[in-house]
Amino acid sequence: xxxxxxxxxxxxxxxxxxxxxxxxxxEASPHSxxxxxxxxxxxxxxxxxEFPEQLARQCARDVVAYDRLGFGESSPHPGLxxxxxxxxxxxxxxxxxxxxxxxxxxxxxxHSVGGGMALCAAAQYPQRCLGVITLAAQSYxxxxxxxxxxxxxxxxxxxxxxxRLARYHGDKAPWVLQAWLGTxxxxxFADWTLDEDLRRxxxxxxxxxxxxxxxxxxxxxHRIAALAAGPAxxxxxxxxxxxxxxxxxxxxxxxxVDWLRGLGA
Length: 265
Known about the structure:
This protein has helices spanning 51-59, 85-88, 93-100, 113-124, 143-156, 161-169, 173-184, 195-198, 219-227, 244-247, 249-263, and strands at residues 4-12, 17-25, 35-38, 63-66, 106-111, 129-135, 205-210, 232-237. It has 265 residues and is of the alpha/beta class. It has an 8-stranded mixed β-sheet, sandwiched between helices. α4 links the parallel β5 and β6 (129-135). α1 (51-59) runs parallel beside α11 (249-263) and α6 (161-169) packs across α7 (173-184). The two termini are 23 Å apart.
């Protein structure tokens, strides 16, 4: 079995410190582009669980993940999220992580809103981002998204739910929840789409979406593929919800390995 070693980093930015982790595969080619993971709206490095190590091992390359500002072990966010926060991520924290770790070519992997960030990163770095893998990414705000958020808001009002969130975000947990629900349910965010960024994409895409995803219909992966200028492979996973890499990990990993063979990265 390939040995996987982890390293943790603290990266200084103008807004605060970013926590990052790298899973190193000792058998990875020095020329292989690493995966860079962007987490979901309630996520953190630790909430990727076994997936980064599985990805590093099965794909024989390094994996990097980081806590966005305000999440996990990174510094508290200094304010509210701007409505442009999805596009802004590639120009702010992601840029700092890539620079600090000396990463040039990379493959972006994003879950949920992190999928949107990964797609924006590919548009921002067309020469460096060699491909994008999205897991349950949203491409616009639809009614199913709103309904899922309202159900989540009600669930988080129950006893013990905030304590569970605090396991991963500490005293930043209330901000994390408000950043998610407050932003996505805001009238100012209602017209948000990824359309402009998708039309700029030239790199290959691998788009996963569960047909039971409570935050987005299967219109999202098809819209992403239709608007992207580069080649896109869509995998709609039967019986799968919002976390494909946890609910159907082996299916996702096998598809990534096959996709990489054609990527040549």
